[in-house]
Design goal:
Blueprint: E1 23-32, H1 42-50, E2 56-57, E3 66-70, E4 76-81, H2 91-106, E5 111-114, H3 124-127, H4 136-146, H5 151-154, E6 158-164, H6 168-181, H7 186-189, E7 194-195, E8 198-199, H8 205-211, H9 232-247, E9 266-269, E10 274-281, H10 286-304, H11 311-315, H12 319-332, E11 337-338, H13 341-346, E12 354-355, H14 356-367, H15 374-384, H16 387-392, H17 401-417
Antiparallel strand pairs: 1-4, 1-5, 1-6, 2-3, 3-4, 6-10, 7-8, 9-10, 11-12
Helix pairs in contact: 2-10, 6-10, 10-15, 14-15
């Protein structure tokens, strides 16, 4: 449902070639400054920023690159690049500046921003308020069909990466590479181990909620890992065409007949010439998010360049084994034992079984060994474990509200300061 950040372009003419730019999106929660309960105040924030009822805001001094926008739930705010940025250098600082600007506006409302992939004690059945303004017919249609007052709709925040392609050949290569990376992402970015006020044995509960939120139309999310299609014609026939057919009886007006209705872990946006990666939980601060974006992007680049296996070999890896690995990493994050041979070979791993944490450490040395900002941050994060693991170490299975409040207040302070959470 998120509006992509890549430039629109009609037909088969695409704006950018492979790795010529990055479209970035980070989502955060608006919460009460004292209690950390959710506050459905995104529209009040936009009114304070722009003086009118709008669903987006372009802050001054950003040369038209950065923007804020609404999401389905009224307590969620998205920061995004309005146009692709040609480099990731300094982008964590630009996102951090937007966090500071929003918190200044939220202060008179006694609100602040909260990171991570899910609110730890939100009751979505009682507390959800959907965006009531511009584009609300889309949200109302989702709500009518699926019932959006659930964790999988109204209580999830993620980081999205939009990577461009310039023609059908580039789309195929990019899609093949991204499919292989998706199952490993929760082992790097899980940050949602608490739901309904209780610790969950599922390290990335956001993805668990996300992959089951559209059961009424199973083709919407599919297996989360996309099917083995590598041309626009095949994609529109095998994925989008089948999805639109399945939706016809529920959405006769065709309000959701759009590429963004596809809820797989990565989706093709042919109207903008990009593939959007959706399986990254929001981290504690933009530095952590952008470091992960850099590592994931460089890994995708290495696969596109056929560093370890050829494009033809990548295309033959079926969906089911990748989906099985994703279920495991979603549950166990970096503590997952991975033995899927074709996935390990694709990553240049020679062992027959290895821990997901070791895979990411190896890949960091392979594709991003010496960046002055991203590499040190990633080494700290990998050593300390995913944010989900770091949170879990601090709470019991049935924590008190006070215990959860202490942990998540510290996370909110990390977001405010732009610092990593509980790393050495």
């Amino acid at each position: 449902m998120s509006r992509s950040t890549m430039n629109a372009s009609p037909g088969y003419s695409y704006p950018l070639g492979l790795f010529a730019g990055y479209g970035l999106e980070l989502e955060y929660m608006i919460v009460d400054e004292a209690t950390l309960d959710i506050r459905p105040a995104a529209d009040q924030l936009f009114r304070a920023a722009s003086g009118q009822d709008v669903s987006w805001h372009l802050p001054e001094g950003e040369e038209g690159l950065m923007g804020w926008s609404n999401e389905l739930a009224l307590h969620v705010l998205e920061f995004k690049t309005i146009h692709p940025t040609p480099t990731l250098e300094g982008m964590h600082e630009r996102f951090q500046a937007q966090v500071a600007a929003v918190e200044r506006l939220l202060k008179p409302m006694s609100c602040r921003l909260l990171p991570t992939g899910m609110h730890p004690w939100m009751n979505p059945d009682l507390e959800t308020r959907l965006w009531p303004h511009e584009n609300n017919e889309i949200y109302a249609t989702y709500d009518r069909i699926f019932g959006c007052r659930g964790h999988g709709w109204s209580n999830l925040q993620s980081s999205h990466i939009n990577l461009p392609f310039g023609n059908d050949e580039e789309f195929g290569r990019l899609h093949a590479a991204v499919r292989l990376v998706l199952p490993l992402l929760p082992a790097l970015a899980a940050s949602s181990p608490v739901v309904d006020g209780k610790w969950s044995p599922i390290a990335d509960y956001r993805i668990e909620a996300y992959r089951t939120n559209s059961k009424r139309v199973p083709l919407m999310a599919g297996a989360v890992i996309p099917e083995t299609v590598y041309t626009r014609d095949d994609y529109e026939r095998e994925i989008l065409g089948r999805l639109y057919s399945a939706m016809e009886g529920l959405d006769p007006e065709g309000i959701l007949r759009n590429e963004w209705a596809n809820a797989r872990g990565c989706i093709a946006r042919f109207d903008r010439g990009s593939i959007e990666i959706r399986l990254l939980d929001t981290q504690e601060c933009p530095l952590a998010d952008l470091a992960i974006v850099a590592l994931v992007s460089e890994l995708v680049r290495a696969l596109v360049e056929e560093r370890w296996v050829t494009y033809e070999q990548q295309k033959t890896v079926p969906t089911e084994p990748l989906a099985n690995v994703l279920v495991d990493t979603m549950r166990y994050a970096e503590r997952t034992r991975i033995s899927e041979r074709r996935l390990l070979e694709a990553m240049g791993i020679k062992r027959t079984m290895t821990w997901a944490s070791d895979i990411w450490s190896t890949l960091l040395d392979e594709v991003l060994p010496a960046h002055p900002v991203w590499t040190p941050a990633l080494r700290q994060m990998l050593e300390a474990g995913t944010l989900s693991t770091r949170i879990s170490k601090l709470i019991r299975r049935y924590p008190t509200r006070g215990e959860l409040h202490a942990v998540y207040a510290e996370l909110a302070d990390c977001l405010r300061r732009g610092s990593l959470f509980r790393v050495r």
